[in-house]
Amino acid sequence: MLPSQQSPETHNSDEWISVADLMAGLLMMFALLVIATLVQLKQIEEQNRNKRVLVIQALQEQFNANKISAQINPETGDITLLDSILFVVGKSKLTDDGIKFLKEFIPVYGKTLFKDSQISDEITRIIIEGHTSSEGGVAHNMSLSLARAESVYQFIEGNMWRTTQATPPLGDGHTWVETWVDTFPEQPEFMEKIQISGRGMLDSNKDMPAKEDRKVLFRMQFKSDEAFKMFLE
Asked: Which of the four pLDDT bands, split at 50, 70 and 90, describes residue 104?
């Protein structure tokens, strides 16, 4: 056989080596893509955590300064308002004390979220989420939790967020003048991002009714949350 001639076995062997090299190259490219994606996911997660930390710290400082009693989850920034603050047991109508509390809480909460555009632009939704204990039927608790979230929403939308402020007299006048002051100028922007939800007894203690399960949550969602989900999908 001439040196330039190859047997069928040698030709097939060369083809298999070429295919193996191609597969190895594809596997390397795939591995690099996976590593790059994981790095991006880590960066998004870190950015999300940093934003939450800033918001949570700012909220805690403002609540302390204004003597507002609200539970803040240090990891998520979710704010828990127990039903004893806002409602009578089993009812969805705000109590007088509940209205008074929301008049103090909502402006502080809204101003803290929207005073910095870098933070407010990242917030896609503010979810008002009703919860109940495991006491009672599933359908009743789901309706009650949604009705309570709706009551809070309606109050934020319908309340006149103004108060009077006395202005000293001008010149030689002796009469102080009372003027209206807007206490929640961020309301329109705040309302655009609100979403209401009723969770009923889904997250409650199923073994026994617990009063801490009866609550309303204020929950924030960030753009980075949605980006993270897109990567996972």
From this structure: very high
List all residues 6 or more positions away from 195 whose beta carbon is below 8 Å from its beta carbon: 125, 126, 127, 128
CA distance 60 to 72: 7
pTM value? 0.75
- 12 vs 23: CA distance, rounded Å: 17
Residues contacting residue 118 through CB under 8 Å, at least 6 positions apart: none
- Could you give the CA distance from residue 137 to residue 201 in angstroms, rounded to a whole number? 9
pLDDT in tens, 22-44: 777 788 888 888 787 777 667 66
- The answer for 223, left when phi > 0, alpha when psi is -120 to 50, beta otherwise, is alpha
Locate tokens 């080596």: which residue? Answer: 17
Half-sphere exposure of 161 (CA within 13 A, CB side): 21
pLDDT band (50, 70, 90) for residue 232: low
